[in-house]
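A.,

Following up on our hallway conversation. Structure tokens first:
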């Protein structure tokens, strides 16, 4: 994230996990322990993919794990809520939890309903 000047006063490690991993978009959304736990809560297990999977590979797996008609909405909503958790930690010092992330994910379609098919997230 430092390439886009989204770092925190020179801190380059991930805000969501306890590892000292550099915060990249790939780490934040897919390999960070917090994000892995979040994806697992909705039935998506990245460990079944080969190392360094492409974005289309990840979308294909999401499509296989959630109803196909809403896989894009799920993918984008998960990423958006992870980003909001990151920002809450950085700017508001709110410690993220998987349960609070899931609660926010469940209300996300109501907030962004104009972008989704009706009833898209009834299954979450």
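Then the amino acids I'd put at each of the 124 positions:
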């Amino acid at each position: 994230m430092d390439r886009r000047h989204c770092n925190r006063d020179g801190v380059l490690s991930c805000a969501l996990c306890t590892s000292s991993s550099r915060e990249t978009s790939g780490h934040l959304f897919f390999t960070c322990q917090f994000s892995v736990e979040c994806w697992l809560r909705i039935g998506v297990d990245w460990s079944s993919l080969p190392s360094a999977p492409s974005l289309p590979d990840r979308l294909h797996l999401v499509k296989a794990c959630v109803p196909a008609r809403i896989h894009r909405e799920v993918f984008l909503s998960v990423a958006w809520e992870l980003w909001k958790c990151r920002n809450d930690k950085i700017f508001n010092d709110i410690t993220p939890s998987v349960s609070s992330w899931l609660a926010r994910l469940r209300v996300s379609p109501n907030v962004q309903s104009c972008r989704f098919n009706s009833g898209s997230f009834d299954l979450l």
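Residues 2-112 form one domain. Curious whether your intuition agrees with the design.

B.
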